[in-house]
Amino acid sequence: MARLIYKIAPRTLWQVAEARGVFDGAPVDHADGYIHFSTAEQAIETAAKHFAGETDLVLVAVDAAALGEALKWEVSRGGALFPHLYAPLPLGAVVSVVDLPLGPDGRHVFPEFAQ
């Protein structure tokens, strides 16, 4: 499975997580009972489907191995396996946090993904 997984989050929600030292998830995560993540290949489609036109987002890269058995790979959109975390995200597993701005075409501009 992927070494790095990604969470797209509103900046204000992420700032709360940084202040608390843990990320408990967004409202959709609370409703579903786990924290939604994407692989690099899935993140662009996730942004387009769930965050279209939203500004002031961050892209959080997380070391999947650091999450242990709480991370499950489950079938989701289109039959693909998506990473779902059944625990709060410890900030020690975070590799990077970068801005996810909108480009002139209205789509999010992603950084080059680490391999």
Give structural notes.
The structure is a single chain. It is built from three helices and eight strands; from the N terminus they run E-H-E-H-E-H-E-E-E-E-E. The chain is an alpha+beta fold and 115 residues long. It has a single domain (4-98), classed as Alpha-Beta Barrel (ADP-ribosylation fold), CATH 3.20.170.20. It has a three-stranded antiparallel β-sheet. The chain has a three-stranded antiparallel β-sheet with strand order 3-6-5. It is globular.
At the fourth CATH level, what is the homologous superfamily?
Protein of unknown function DUF952
Strand order of the largest sheet: 1-4-8
Number of domains: 1
Q: Report the biggest beta sheet as strand number plus sense, adding barrel if it closes.
A: 3 strands, antiparallel
Order of helices and strands: EHEHEHEEEEE
Count of alpha/pi helices: 3
CATH topology descriptor: ADP-ribosylation fold
Structural class: alpha+beta
Please give the number of β-strands: 8
Helical percent range?
A: 10-25%
Uncertain ranges: none
Mean pLDDT: 94
The end-to-end span amounts to: 12 Å
Share of β-strand residues? 25-35%
The CATH architecture designation is Alpha-Beta Barrel
What is the CATH first-level class name? Alpha Beta
Radius of gyration over all CA atoms, rounded: 13 Å
- Described by the principal axes of the CA atoms, the overall outline is globular
InterPro entries: DUF952
Organism: Methyloraptor flagellatus
Protein name: DUF952 domain-containing protein
